[in-house]
C-alpha cells in the first residue's frame, strides 16, 4: 500500500500564494506520474497539474501561468506552488500517484481563497 500525505493548505486572500506538499511513503520515481487534482463542492474532481516520468508536465488551463508542479525525489515529495489565487480556486486538493492501472490518492487538503 502507498500513503500520500498532503500538507500546506489553508485560508488565503485573493492574490495570495500557497504551497502544497505531497509526501509519499515510497520512492516517487516508482510511479509513472504524480499529480494534483481538486474538487469543489458539488463539482467533479478535476486535474490541476500532473508530472510524468516521460511525458513531462500537464496543467489545466485554469492553472497555467499561476501554478507550478515540482518534485524533490530525495524527499519523495511533490509540490504545487499556487500563486495569484482566486476565489474559484477554493476546493479540496488531492495528490494522486499513478502506477500502471493503479491510482493512489491522498486524503485531500482544503484550500480556501477568500477575503
Description:
The structure is a single chain. With 115 residues, this protein is mostly beta strands. The protein contains no helices and eleven strands. Strands 2, 4, 5, 6, 9, 10 and 11 form a seven-stranded mixed sheet that branches. The protein has a four-stranded antiparallel sheet with strand order 1-3-8-7, with no helix packed on it. It is globular and about 40 Å long. The termini are far apart.
Name the structural class. Answer: mainly beta
Low-confidence stretches: none
Mean pLDDT: 96
In percent, how much strand structure appears in the residues?
over 45%
Q: In which range does the helix fraction lie? A: under 10%
How far do the termini sit from each other? 40 Å
Provide key terms for this protein:
seven-stranded mixed β-sheet, 115 residues, mainly beta, globular
In summary, what is this structure?
The protein is mainly beta and 115 residues long.
Amino acid at each position: 500500500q502507498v500513503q500520500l500525505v498532503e500538507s500546506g493548505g489553508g485560508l488565503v486572500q485573493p492574490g495570495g500564494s500557497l504551497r502544497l506538499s505531497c509526501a509519499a511513503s515510497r520512492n516517487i520515481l516508482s510511479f509513472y506520474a504524480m499529480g494534483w487534482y481538486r474538487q469543489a463542492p458539488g463539482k467533479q474532481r478535476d486535474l490541476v497539474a500532473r508530472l510524468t516520468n516521460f511525458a513531462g508536465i500537464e496543467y489545466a488551463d485554469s492553472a497555467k501561468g499561476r501554478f507550478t508542479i515540482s518534485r524533490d525525489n530525495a524527499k519523495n515529495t511533490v509540490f504545487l506552488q499556487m500563486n495569484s489565487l482566486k476565489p474559484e480556486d477554493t476546493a479540496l486538493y488531492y495528490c494522486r500517484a499513478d502506477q500502471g492501472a493503479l491510482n493512489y490518492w491522498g486524503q485531500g487538503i482544503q484550500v480556501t481563497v477568500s477575503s
